[in-house]
Write a structure and sequence with these properties.
By secondary structure, this protein is of the alpha/beta class. The protein has a single domain (about 5-135, about 205-275), classed as Alpha/Beta hydrolase fold, catalytic domain (Rossmann fold), CATH 3.40.50. The chain has helices spanning about 50, 80-90, 105-115, 140-145, 150-160, 160-170, 180-185, 190-205, 210-215, 235-240, 260, 265-275, and strands at about 5-15, 15-25, 30-35, 55-60, 100-105, 120-125, 220-225, 245-250. The protein has an 8-stranded mixed β-sheet, with helices on both faces. Helix 2 crosses helix 3 and helix 5 (about 150-160) crosses helix 8 (about 190-205). It is globular, with a radius of gyration of 18 Å. The chain starts with 6 loop residues before the first strand and ends with a helix.
Amino acid sequence: MEHASFSSHFETIDGVSVYYELYGYTPAKPAIVLVHGFLSSSFSFRRLIPLLTKDFSVIAVDLPPFGQSEKSLTFVYSYKNLAKLITQLIRKLHLNKVILVGHSMGGQISLNTAKLEPDLVDKIILLCSSGYLSRSHYGLILSSYLPYFYLWIKTWLARKGIDGNLKNVVYDLNMIDEEMIQGYMKPFSDDKIFMALTRMIRHREGDLSSEDLRSIEVPSLLIWGEEDRVVPLNIGKRLKQDIQNSTLISFQKTGHLVPEEKPEAIHQHMLQFLY
């Protein structure tokens, strides 16, 4: 699919190479920053991006170690540090008051960004955002220091394969095709991503608490799939209670991968929320 004035870039931030894409980028349009979820990349927004470029400058980021960003073995993969990467990229692009759109884990990164630098964020749109997850179990963190632990992660992820994992995150299985499988599988051809994921297990500090969420005043739109088996709708309802200036909508017969499943509907609700 053709995109308006597309360009791709690498930027070194905090010692790690971060890949991002610009679509329809101009200072005259409000800027939307797309933040993907766990084991995903900017590829997950491929159906939503073309709908946004008429009205917005779109920045799609690959969070390290995912997508085309560096699979660094020195970076500290905490949510706070990932949020700092987003804020520094916003500043490097000389943006002001961006709209953050975060899917799944990307929702937590977006919320962390708003908590860290509220003046940089105009509004937040959370797509099946993760919430209320605690830090990894202490035993798992200790195990991550064992030699070749990354091979266990690789084996664990390979049990269902990309096809099996996609079946867990979409409602309509007919939408899974070869292009989709290849797009989500591509970043996992390098074993370094499993080594980096080992570090993420150690560093991820858990999701924001209810107290932290209640401190976020940025207007927020929460969008959910009612058949989401990964982050159930009750998480969205709980986030709605804790984020004071928020609205929750949900789609029937929709799973976790809402940017792929309902791009047109999401686009319409975004326009109503933002204008």
